[in-house]
Prior knowledge:
Blueprint: H1 4-20, H2 25-44, H3 51-57, H4 62-80, H5 88-121, H6 144-151, H7 162-184, H8 189-202, H9 210-223, H10 236-246, H11 257-276, H12 285-292, H13 294-314, H14 321-371
Amino acid sequence: MQNAGESGLSRKSKRLLHDRSAHIVELQSLRGIAATAVLFGHVIGYYSIPEWLVDLGKFSNGRAAVVIFFVLSGYVLTRSLHSSAFDIPAVSRFYVQRWFRIYPAIWPASLLGLGYLVVLHWNVPVDNLAPGFGRYFRADRYDLLHILGSFAGVQAFLLPQLWSIFIEIVASIAMPGIAFVALHRPRWMPQLLIIATAASFIISHSPYDIGLYFMDFIVGAALAMHRLPAIPLPWLVPGCLAVLSATLFFPLSYVSPIAHLVETFFSAIIISILISTPIAWLQSRFLTFIGDISYSIYLLHFVVLCLIAKAFALVHLSVDTVAMTLLLASATYAATIPLAWLSYLYIEQPGVRLGKAIVNRHVTKMSFRGAHSPTS
């Protein structure tokens, strides 16, 4: 039997979880940190630089940052469905709102990428370009299919980071089913996690590695299950972030299922803590602001860094590659933040509002008619 102290602690933990479930600013700040890591990771890969700087750049681990994005999406999307009836109108509402959350910001970013390709990419040579950068913007994919595919979010041509958005889109299609299991059939969740983990090993080398990363959304959904125990250990967050920043040093391939499993585990620990525990430094205005605009940062930064690097080449800026990399990092971050803010204000937010308006006007009416149909 629980004593009075344990019962009180349990009630306090449950109340804390309930109060923080609607909007957790720490999770938003975590998105901003992850988007910033991806930005600096791409900047480090632009020029041919000394090995010591390559190693230093590995701490800006974009691979682990993407895992954080995926686990967060699984959690947040499942929370958004916690009061859903999981009928056709409810699932339709989810899909419409998700569509208007993902796509509006993709289109202007893709248009910027297309403009960069047409005007600058093949016309302005850059000295000391890293050999690996040639895998982006491949000339053999410069055709209508890949351009339209980029605008549709299913091709990573105009925006190389769109591979992860493709995974988000595919996972979003499956999320109502995953959320239903997490919220209404929790006893099935261990089996689902085992199957997803096995699949990440068996089909890890699938298109855009979707077989590797799909399990992250299921892990995130598991974090949204009812009666999840609170983990009030805020001191673990910096430690887990440190582990995530170092996983690129593992002697494993970039798409290693083992490295991915480690990153998923520590991402889940961080998010579990933030769900239940306020952390002051993650509530700072700057980090929450960066978190708010993190999606546009993620979409815009790659083309921005390419534009700035071409500008450096046009003015014949010639210093050593270490200094060039530092200049590129500073200029890219400084230019991306205001652009992302404008995208957030005038593209992302209006898109979200439009999605909600369509849902309220049409899908809700469909639900009302269904409730009064002769077969209901």
